[in-house]
Specification:
The protein is α/β, with parallel strands linked by helices. The chain has helices at residues 37-50, 71-87, 99-108, 125-132, 157-174, 194-202, 204-208, 222-227, 242-255, 265-282, and strands spanning 16-22, 54-58, 92-95, 112-115, 135-139, 182-185, 215-216, 259-262. Strands 6-5-4-3-2-1-8-7 form an eight-stranded parallel β-sheet. The longest helix has 18 residues, at 157-174. The protein is globular, with a radius of gyration of 17 Å.
Length: 283
């Protein structure tokens, strides 16, 4: 099983854990809880204490149907949080689709740009990333939140996501991004229905054949709540699907994922260590 080493980021010899800090009032799982910058910084530090290797700071919700915020508002939300966490020695990534936010975040100390659009939302993004030299998550994406559900149409989802990610890799490389900077994300829940998400989780090994580390973000997403629905069909609430998230984390880590992005860090930090122990015993 491949163990990925990504320049400038932690190398623990196992799947890493990325903890989420949403500096937003409307994120699907925890909107508003960390909207105050001081609260967001405290939460980021708590996630590190719980075992997060990376803390992902975002200032714009990408839940289905979410409206975009202005550039100025997004900057005001994330920049002070990233700056303070970086001063505290935390490895920080910025969750943004905007090149200007990425530039400011890197200047504030971010070591990774997590772009859910894979460079499609802002054509300047790959050039900003290339100039900065930081790591770049290129996610599979077919459109903004207001329209992404209508784009969940595939014949063979694993094959098509692989092909579309390969095209995005070629595109960002052409803009000057180095091979060693690229991390890929299949975009679970983004223009995907539940069956698509399960197929992609089962196909992690095929996605890894693209030759780049994989970030998997399943935490608290709708397809988990639907799987665990009550007998009357009512989906399980987002914050009660952490056990299912934990199962995906263990599966993804064992399949060779480089990192998992999660809200509830401590049990997921345990799960990646269990997966690593099984891998060692298997080898």
């Amino acid at each position: 099983m491949t163990t990925w080493s990504v320049p400038g980021l932690p190398d623990e010899g196992r799947c890493l854990v990325m903890g989420v800090v949403n500096v937003t009032p409307d994120s699907f799982s925890d909107g508003g809880r960390w909207f105050d910058p001081a609260a967001a910084v405290r939460h980021g530090l708590e996630l590190v204490e719980q075992g997060a290797d990376i803390v992902d700071v975002g200032g714009e919700s990408t839940r289905p149907g979410a409206a975009r915020v202005s550039l100025e508002e997004e900057l005001a939300r994330v920049e002070p949080v990233i700056r303070q966490l970086s001063r505290e020695g935390v490895v920080v990534s910025v969750d943004t689709m905007r090149a200007e936010v990425a530039r400011a975040a890197v200047e504030a100390g971010a070591r990774l740009v997590n772009d859910v659009s894979g460079g499609l939302a802002d054509p300047e993004m790959p050039r900003i990333v290339a100039a900065s030299g930081v790591q770049y998550v290129v996610m599979h994406w077919r459109g903004h939140s207001h329209s992404m559900d209508s784009r969940a149409i595939y014949g063979d989802v694993v094959t098509e996501v692989r092909e579309e990610l390969a095209k995005r890799v070629a595109s960002v490389l052409a803009e000057g991004v180095a091979e060693s900077q690229i991390v890929l994300d299949p975009g679970l829940g983004f223009s995907k229905n539940p069956e698509h998400n399960w197929a992609l989780i089962a196909g992690i090994d095929r996605l890894a054949e693209l030759g780049h580390p994989l970030l998997i973000g399943a935490s608290r997403k709708r397809f988990l709540g639907r799987l665990l629905a009550d007998p009357d069909g009512t989906p399980r609430p987002f914050d009660r699907s952490d056990d299912a998230t934990l199962a995906v984390t263990a599966l993804a880590a064992d399949a060779g994922a480089w990192c998992v992005r999660v809200h509830d860090v401590r049990p997921n930090a345990d799960a990646v260590r269990v997966a690593a122990a099984v891998q060692r015993a298997r080898s």
